[in-house]
Amino acid sequence: MTTTEELLARYKAALPSFVAPLHAKPVSIDRGEGSYIFDLEGNRYLDWFGGVLTTMIGHSIPEVVKAVQDQAAKVMHTSTLYLSEPMIAFAEEVAAVSGIPDARVFFTASGTEANDTAIMLANAYRGSNEILAMRNSYHGRSYSAQAITAQSSWSVASMSGLNVTFIQGGYRLRSPFRELDDEAYTQACIGDLVQMIDMATAGKVAAMIAEPIQGVGGFATPPDGFFGAMHKELTNREILFISDEVQTGWGRTGEHFWGYQAHGIVPDMLTFAKGVGNGITLAGVVARKEIMDSINVLSFSTFGGNPLSTAAGRATLKYVLDHDLQGNAKKMGRRLTERLQPVIDETDWIAELRGRGLMQALEMVHPGGIEPDAAITARLLDEAKDRGLLVGKGGLYGNVIRMAPMLAITEEELDQGIDALIDAITSLN
Ligand SMILES: Cc1ncc(COP(=O)(O)O)c(C=O)c1O
């Protein structure tokens, strides 16, 4: 039988050096069940990262497994050149839950490709290559997605055909406006937005793209209503708003089904990926018809909307709605905050607990200030793992622990994870 150690040697020999296992002593995943994964040696871990928020509701959920198996036995690929019921039905279902009026859905194979498409649509609709994006953003790994990403640790190159201006606001802890209250903070960022449009662009901006809660950026969360205030300024200038819901969608934030709903607006477009297939490749963009139809040539994404993916998407969305997993994210998220906050308040090397629902994070700093501490973050990650809990890492400086339990997590499983995390934190005091 293969061991984790052998697999690591083969990983290093076969994969590029720019991918790397998360843990100092890497974890193999042999199989999953609900909130848990099992490594090749049979060790069990509570999974609070889901392969970066992609196994969304739980591992090997029977309803999703059956939908995929049944579809695989029928037909696995068709493309948009043919009429495929799962693809069309899922487009109808996504349009219905998107909140975007007269919505059209274009499926892609990744979040990167979904964002590329949204930017391409904005370019075509507005006749402009000027884009606004948020500081500390992450939108993917193609040239254009990197161009709208504001984290140099993820940027291989800055070249693209886009003219991008980055706006203050997503990441409050390291903003020059961080001392201000919610309202004043929002107004200061609006001032920056207006000034950057007036000073750094040629005036006709196509779109602004933003993650309602920044994922890779460490679950950085602006005040409620923040993007609503920005939206007013954008609408006055006919600038489209694209909500990147790749991490915040499908009820994960608990209070809302989409991250944008915390801001009292409806975006012109939204992009989705990761969790919607509960692990199967599935992504896309939703836009109002008039925007979607601004591409007036043929366009095509080979794997976008293939029947296997959309069967998984339909089964996942049905499970989310039938089991009110948004409600569970709200309830479990509240419990997570309530139990962790007192510990964080007493820990001088954790600057804050932030996020929403089942999307919460801890940012590690050197005591007495906000200088990032990536070393203690790596230790906390491994201490949690040694206690049977897998959490993720993130943040501009690699100093954030990201927690994203399965949306179907039970109270008992949640408490088990919280106990492990508190014990891991205590061990580092
Ligand atoms: C908010 C956000 N947008 C886009 C992407 C890119 O998605 P993908 O890795 O599927 O290309 C990611 C991936 O982490 C993401 O977090």
Hetero groups bound?
A: pyridoxal-5'-phosphate
Give the structural class: alpha/beta
β-strand percent reads: 15-25%
> Which term fits the overall shape?
globular
Could you name the key traits of this structure?
429 residues, alpha/beta, 7-stranded mixed β-sheet, 13 helices, 15 strands
How would you sum up this structure, described in words?
It is built from 13 helices and 15 strands. It has 429 residues and is of the alpha/beta class. A seven-stranded mixed β-sheet has the order 4-10-9-8-7-5-6, with helices on both faces. A four-stranded mixed β-sheet has the order 1-2-3-13. Helix 3 runs antiparallel to helix 10 (307-322) and helix 7 (182-200) packs parallel to helix 8. The model has no long low-confidence stretch (mean pLDDT 97). Bound molecules: pyridoxal-5'-phosphate (PLP).
Compact summary:
The protein has helices spanning 4-14, 50-53, 62-74, 85-98, 111-126, 143-147, 182-200, 226-236, 289-292, 307-322, 325-345, 374-386, 411-427; strands spanning 31-33, 36-38, 44-47, 103-108, 130-134, 163-167, 207-210, 240-244, 269-272, 283-288, 350-356, 359-364, 389-390, 392-394, 400-403. With 429 residues, it is an alpha/beta fold.
